User: What shape does this take?
Amino acid sequence: SHYQHERNMFLLIACDAKYIVCFKSQLNRLDKWQLGAIERGFHKEYSLDWHDGLIISMGSITNGRIYMFTEREFYIYSVNQRRKLHTRMLPRGDDDGLEVNHPRYNEFYRGIGTVYNEHMYHIYLNRNSRWTLSKNIVENLTHIYDYDLTSIFPDVKRFIHICVNENTINILVQMNDSSYGVVFCPTNGQITNDKLQSIILPRAEQPLTICSAFIKTLNQYIFFINDPSHDILHILSIEQYLTSYSVDCYAICYVANKHELIIVTNTSISSINLNQSNLFFRNFL
Assistant: This one.
């Protein structure tokens, strides 16, 4: 469908078979944002009631409910009813006393999270300035365990975005040498010395988000990372960097029950049917 992206806007999307939910905020402005939804079958767009600040991450949409993270809180929001249903404070880091306009806020040190199946995952910089990944049960937000990411990944300077699949927790990161890459954790919480190798993204300039999709042709998960400042969509497996695709991709989202990748470009919102992409992925067998 037709869409016009303004280059000074930060964009997040979450999608299912019925809705595409978009959150737009003006870069370098923490007080200007818009939350809206597109009903896919009718190409109908409408605003959603939202007055709770900058959204840093969006989880999945499940049964008309979307999961969202701000710097301080986790929200369950009803797209159908256009209102928030539940709110929960997130663990606080070491910058609690900072003013909202402090430069540290612009680096999104908290509010990095996602939801996969019955679990909520949240990354934050704790009071001891150590990056921490918290795993919780969504239903009642009971805490299960924490990963000490700083200990597991000492070469990582900054954790940017997260996605989760059946096998692994997958995190887009910036390394200490300022390069960008992806690091992986097993979903069962068992960290061993034989941890999975990180994958470095060549020619990455400012990658934004990561999502994964299971590709039957390859019998494994493949990862997509959008890097609109360099007009690149990075494609990789858990073992190696595969290729890049030249596209001005401002946001991406995987819709599992339709096995499609939603891509927001400068002028459109497009759907790529991954079931019809077998020929492309066979190149990597």
User: Anything to note?
Assistant: DSSP finds two helices and 23 strands in the chain. The two ends are 33 Å apart (CA to CA).
